[in-house]
Every structure is written in C-alpha cells, then in structure tokens.
C-alpha cells in the first residue's frame, strides 16, 4: 500500500471536485454516495467530521477515508483543507456543454474557456514527483516506445518527433498490431509511454500490459481516475480534462496531454542540456534544407 508521503508527494491537493467528477462513473455504490454528498455539500463538508460525512452518506468512516485516499489525499482532513482552498478561489469557468441554440461567438467562448480550464486543472493534478520519475526512466532507457490510438495517435507522433529532436532514440506506434509486436519485443532497457485519455482503450491497454510483462518501464499519460491501464503502469502522469456531450474526443484532452509532453520534453532537454542543444542544432540544419 502506498504511504501517505507517496500519495501526496509533499504537494498541496487541488481540484478536489474536478477529481471526483473525473472518477465518478467508476465508483462503487458506497463510494458514489460519498462522492455525491461531498460535491453537493462541499461548503458544509469543510466544517464536518469524518463521522458526520459517513452518517450522511450512509457509509462507514473507513469508506470515507478510503475514498479520500483514492483522490490522492492522506485522509479526510486533507480533503477538507483542499475543499476550503478551492471554495475561496474565484471560479474561473463553469464547464458548460454546447447547446443547439449557441451562436458562433458563444461556441468559441465555451470551447476556448474549456481548453484553458483543462490546462489549469491538469497543472494542479500533475504529480511533479511522478514527472521526475518519468524523466529519469526515459534518460536511463536505451530506447523509448510511444503508444497511442485514435485521437491519442497524433500526440504519440508529436512526442516521438520531439524526443528525436533532442537526441533520444524513440519510435511511435499507432497501429494496434505494431504496438503488440513492439511491446512483446521490449525489455528492461525500454521505456514505454502510453497515451490514453480513458485508460481503457483495448489496443493500448494490451500493448502496455505486454510491455510491462516483457520488463519495460511503463509510463502513462491518462486522465485522472480509475482505469485498467493503471494496473500495468509504473509511472502515471494525470491530465484532468472533462469531455462533455458534444465534445467527446475533444481538444481538451489532447491539449492537456500535449502540455504534459511539453513539460516532459523540456525537463529531459534540461537534464542533458549540452547534448540536447547540440542535437537540436544538428537537426535544425537538416530541417533547414527542407525549407525554401
């Protein structure tokens, strides 16, 4: 079981309500009642005891504490502090779905605000210690394999391109058969990065499992919450992006994923600064011949 320090990594907890929304559909009936009570009564929960919340949600105190830990907290007290902090901060944007009556200006406003909010929420949800572990794993690896299917395929291709630009041997696999073969041929010197918003896409889930069984270090860029992918992942880098009725597979998730890739590449480049600068210079010269 993870220790309290492992759960929080010394960081303040942010975005409790958004974390609950992200994992709500996967909760058990008991955890669901606790989640719904906290969301609907956040201002009151700040002043309640764990016993009172347990009684109101018709759950045990242990279930309430376990639910708090699933959100990344040490326990109920940290959730109360995080809720209080979130409640006093001004609401920057209420996640709204698009409606048939929205005019062009309203659509643009909602889409841009949602994308901006995804970046803010992801910054708060991102585990900095986990990012550092991902950097170290990639630096030690002899090669990096990046997996992505569907809307995540473009993110996988982008990450591969940027790894190559700073001199890290990498390959992106966006075909399920190639992913399976690549994963099966991985070993302890391989780092695998799987990009999946849901964490339950069959193709990337299978490939990640195969890579883990082959001895590779597995890294996932996935939305906060429970998913099958986590069982086969050594390092998790969470996004926190909501997809609404008219924006399933929307840019919110991909923008959040790109932001994490951006931060990861920057950290890798700085960790081996001289090599990265020299490689960027060489690749720039090569790419310059492609321009008129």
UniProtKB/TrEMBL annotation:
Residue ranges of every copy of the SIS domain listed in the record: 134-274
PROSITE patterns: HTH_RPIR, SIS
Keywords: DNA-binding, Transcription, Transcription regulation
InterPro entries: Homeodomain-like_sf, HTH_RpiR, RpiR-like, RpiR-like_SIS, SIS_dom, SIS_dom_sf, WH-like_DNA-bd_sf
HTH rpiR-type domain segment(s): 14-90
CDD domains given in the database record: SIS_RpiR
Protein name per Swiss-Prot or TrEMBL: MurR/RpiR family transcriptional regulator
Lineage per the UniProt record: Bacteria, Pseudomonadati, Pseudomonadota, Alphaproteobacteria, Hyphomicrobiales
